[in-house]
Structure formats: structure tokens, C-alpha cells
Amino acid sequence: MKLERGVCAVVVAALLAAAVAGGCQREKRPSQANLLLIVIDTLRADHVGAYGYRLPTTPTLDDLAAHGVLFEQAVAQAPWTRPSMATLMTGLYPPTHGVTCKHFDVPEEDCDVLPAGVTTLAEALSAAGYDSAGIVANIQVDAVFGFDQGFDSYANVFDELAASDPDWRKHWHEFEWVNETTPEVTHRALAWLQERSSKHPFFLYLHYLDPHEPYEPPAPYAAMFERSSYSSPYTEILADLPRYDGEVRYVDEHVGMVLERVRGLGLAEDTMVVVTADHGEAFGEHGALDRRHGLTLYENQLLVPLIMRVPGRRAAGVRVREQVRLLDLAPTVLDLLGVPIPAAMQGRSFAPLIDGKHVLMPPGLAGWGYEPLLAYRSPPWKLIRNVRTGRTELYDLAADPGEQVNRAAEQGQLLMMLSAEADEVLAAAKKAGEGIERGRGKVTLSPEQRRGLRALGYLD
């Protein structure tokens, strides 16, 4: 969706004001670099080789990390796609941007849709002269929910494949159709890169659906990982894990195809590459009900990979230990590209961390899943609170990264302090959202879109 000329003028003015206020040092930024943002849906960090995984699931991402910067503690602000991606694209907490609805059967409220009154990453880059395109495969980031805001072109192959396939009912049942989205995203990305003739820098956003359930990778990935390589007390999860990893390897190779095209076109030295995920996935680490995503706020769902290659910045193979948040990604990217950061963004640029400087990054607030839970991650401590029942969990992530020993009972003073901090951040985020223009009107999903939600497990 292109910005109108009048809107562009307003955005430019706002961005220039933000630049003065923030003291941007544009001369240090690799101005006019392109941006390639790749989101791999449902990819948990600890199933990536560069994060220590024992199986060869991600040779492409591992190579990217070896030549770029890897963030060891990147935290999503929500355990499911729509609020998490809205945060990534706006630099705003979920209660501020308001995309927090979970009633998939009634997607007709403002809390389903990205507000028109927020400035997205695409809008900020468009105002700075970037061409932009989004090629996605998850219905949760469909244009119907406002995620095309600021893009020159935006295509959801999920919708388009369903509309063009007369046998889609059969394919849904056999899970074949969902896997067609990955090569389709890649095909369109390669074509877009090959065919563009503009001299302007570009922002290309790709969103792969795999390894989202159903875990049905195509051959040879379906048989690439043996069930005997895994352990779990749950038979169904033992069946899921090798298929999940097969999908991870499948999409990793497609990411490799895109990066190879960037290199082949001579664009690698002028293109910032960012690879991350919207959330992770649970495989019974906290009991039989701790499966898939959206229901809990443990590390298996909130810790996501974040790997960047930034032209002209720091040596290869850098690992950043400090916690960063998806909330911080948009302002960081803008900072690195020399584009002023909109004043309303709540995230903080972690660009200095890439240069090896010490920066005290803020704690991470997360929640807005399918259960009334709130998490506050202030390393090494992490608080999880049920806002309905008041039940609390407190984990020392340094000593207990698997979150198996609840320390809430023995750390009462710390618990109170973290709870108060979390409440303060939450209240500020809610207040900031009160003045945001919404008013997109009701959302009406097509039958194909509703069936798509059902096929992915979002509707019964």
C-alpha cells in the first residue's frame, strides 16, 4: 500500500524532528543500504545450529551467523504471530498498537487490525526514499489486518494459492498445500530482486510459514532426521520433533536461495540482512499441555533467533550476549540505515551492541497470548504472572535456563520489585495507546481465509 503524498510529507516532518531530538549521527551510517528482512515463522532459537543445536537443521543461518552478528537473547513480545509482528513492524508494545485480539472466530474488532495511526518500518523507509515489497505466507500478517501499511506492494501467497487452486480442500486435508507456500515465497522474492530496475534502495520483507504446524515437510526433508535422535515422554511429540526439524531445514535452504540471489546480483555488500522469527514453539518441556505456541510464556516460545549482517559494521562471527527485544528491531534497523527513528517508537536501538559497545538494554515485557499471562524478563531473572489468578513464577535463567525451578516463594522481595516494574511498563504502554488513531472499520475474512486459520489450528 503506497503512502499518499500528503501523508509522506507529514511522516518526513515527524522523522526529521525525531532525528534532531535523538541526535542521529548520519555520517556513521551506511546510508542507502538495502534491507532484507526474513521472518521464519515459529522458529525457536535452540533449534538453530548457530545457537548450539546438535542437529544440522540450519546450514544457511549458521553461515550467516559466522559472517554476521548473532544475538543470543532475542525476545519476542508475544507468543503468536499477529501481536508479535505488529510489535516488530512498529517498535510498539502490544497494548500500545492494540493488535491483541484472540477471538479468531470474530475478527471484526479494532484489536485485530494494525492501526492507521502508527508509523510502520515500511512507512519510515518509504519516507526516506526506499522501494518496498512484502511477500508473506501467513494469514496472520495479511493486508486485511493492516500489515501492508507503508509497502509499495504486498502479496500473501497463502491467500493467492488457495484462491487459485480448485482442489484446495483435498490439499488442506493432506497438508500438501501449506508446504507450497515456501517455494512460492522464494520464487516471488527471486523474481522481484531480479526484475527491479529502480535506483532507489529497497526494503524486502519475506515471511515464511514453515516450520509452523502442520509439520509435514516434503521429501527428502521428511526423512532427514531420525526419531531416535530425540527424547520426550510424549509419543506424539516424539513424532513431531523430526518433522519440525525437517521443515526448519527445508526453509533454511530456501533462505539460502534468496541470499545467493542477492550475492549473484552484486547486492550483498549494500544489503543489510536480518533473519528472525515471530515466536518459538513448545514441545512439552513444561508438561503435556505445553505444546505449539500461544498458551505459555516460557523460553521455548519467546526466545527467537536474530542474526544480522550489516554492511560496514564489525568483524564476522560476533555474538551479542545482552538481551534485545523484537520491540527494538525497527528502531535499530532505522538507526543503522541512517533513517530517523519515529519519536513514538518505544523500542531502543541496539546498534551500539553491534559495534561492541556496552549498552544497558531495558527488560522485556511479553504476553498477549491465548491465556492471561504476563512475562517480565530482566536477566538473569524472569517473572511470569497469571493476571487472572495472581499465580507467579520466578526463574533464574542463568542457573535454570529450562525454567524448571520456580523461585517465587523464596525470592519475595525480588518478586515484588519485578512485579512493580512490569506493572509500570504495562501501564505506560496502555496509556501510550490511548491516543492512537484506529478506525479502520470492521474486518471481514473470506471463506478461504477462515479455512486457512482453521488449517493452521487457529479455529476449531
Characterization of the model:
The chain is α/β, with parallel strands linked by helices and 460 residues long. It has one domain: Alkaline Phosphatase, subunit A, CATH 3.40.720.10. The protein is built from 15 helices and 15 strands. The protein has helices spanning 5-22, 59-66, 81-90, 94-97, 121-127, 157-164, 168-174, 176-179, 181-195, 235-264, 299-302, 329-337, 351-354, 412-433, 447-455; strands at residues 34-40, 69-75, 131-136, 153-156, 202-208, 271-276, 282-283, 291-292, 303-304, 306-309, 318-325, 364-367, 373-378, 381-386, 392-396. Strands 1, 2, 3, 4, 5, 6, 9, 10 and 11 form a nine-stranded mixed beta sheet that branches. A hairpin with a 2-residue loop joins strand 13 (373-378) and strand 14. It is globular and about 60 Å long. The model is unreliable at 1-30 and 104-110 (pLDDT under 50).
Output the keywords:
35% helix; 460 residues; disordered N terminus; 15 strands; alpha/beta; four-stranded antiparallel sheet; globular; nine-stranded mixed sheet; 17% strand; Alkaline Phosphatase, subunit A
Concise description?
The chain is an alpha/beta fold and 460 residues long. 35% of the residues lie in helices and 17% in strands. A hairpin with a 5-residue loop joins strand 14 (381-386) and strand 15 (392-396).
Question: Low-confidence spans: pLDDT under 50, at least 5 residues?
Answer: 1-30, 104-110
Give a count of the beta strands, DSSP E runs of length 2 or more.
Answer: 15
**3D shape:** globular
The mean pLDDT is: 85
CATH class: Alpha Beta
User: What assembly state would you assign to the polypeptide chains in this entry?
Assistant: single chain
Largest beta-sheet characterization? 9 strands, mixed
Number of domains: 1
Count of alpha/pi helices: 15
CATH architecture: 3-Layer(aba) Sandwich
